[in-house]
Amino acid sequence: MAKAYEKIADELRAQIRAGRLGPGDRLPSESDLVRSTGCSGPTVQQALRLLRSEGLLEEQHGRGTFVRRPRTMVRRANTRHQWEKDRARASEQQRRATGVTEHDTGLEVDDLVFHAAYREIEAPTEIAAAMGVDEGTALVERTYRTRHSAERNPFSLVTSYLIRDIVKANPDLLDDTKEPWPGGTGNQLYTVGIEIDRMEERVTARPPTVEEAEELGLPPGASVLVVRKTQYDTDNRVVEMSDITLPGDRTEMLFTTPLERW
């Protein structure tokens, strides 16, 4: 037999799915729900917690509880990498027309809000080992955030590393005011004569940190997917590495593996 809080949650869930409560609508206050349901405050609170954990509701501090707006889904397929490489040598006009975020989300360039910040760092032990360079090697650390203009939270949290000595031949690659760069990292590396041969992506899942949950706008209980992407050039050097944190509630990872025929 359903418990009292489950019955309240079932009714609210049904209203949301039927469209009687739409995205962005404010729910009645807890005191109003106590009166309308005849249940206690703790029972109502338990029902609301359940729906927040399902990603159906969100609490806005000082304003109340609202029906959560559906977030833009991202389909991150491994076929995107060949698309990126092909695009690296395209004309500037073609490269400016679209980017990898648009490719993954189906959005248009004008739908997006983009932010990038660069700084130079000395490679810490773990990053140096992963990139095959000496500890203390000069790196360009780049952080990226891209979001749908209709949403508050970015699609992912990205930190990328380039080896400064490899890219310094083009001073623009050290300047974050040149972002967003048409053609992305593939074209940036192409400007200094680098062709990407392959990339490795290691994917793990874990609970988010408090900071990640807040920045990504994650519902309670949602995990993050963490991707470490390492790009190798045709000389088998690591030329770029990225740590990418993706919200597990709205990211799909799609891997397509062509097989040789017998």
Folded structure, characterized:
This protein is α+β, with helices and mostly antiparallel strands and 262 residues long. It has two domains: 64 residues, Orthogonal Bundle (Arc Repressor Mutant, subunit A); 181 residues, Chorismate lyase. The chain is built from ten helices and ten strands. The strands form three sheets. A six-stranded antiparallel sheet has the order 4-5-6-9-8-7. A hairpin with an 8-residue loop joins strand 5 and strand 6. Helix 1 crosses helix 3 and helix 4 crosses helix 9. The protein is elongated. The termini are far apart.
By CATH, the topology of the largest domain is Chorismate lyase
Strand line-up across the major sheet: 4-5-6-9-8-7
Query: What is the number of helices?
Result: 10
Could you tell me the number of beta strands?
Answer: 10
Order of helices and strands: HHHEEEHHHEHEEHHEHEEE
Strand coverage percent: 25-35%
Residues in helices, as a percent range: 25-40%
Topology:
Elements: H1 4-18, H2 30-37, H3 41-53, E1 57-60, E2 64-67, E3 74-77, H4 80-88, H5 92-97, H6 100-105, E4 112-122, H7 125-131, E5 138-148, E6 157-163, H8 164-167, H9 184-190, E7 196-206, H10 210-216, E8 224-233, E9 238-247, E10 251-254
Parallel strand pairs: 3-10
Antiparallel strand pairs: 1-2, 4-5, 5-6, 6-9, 7-8, 8-9
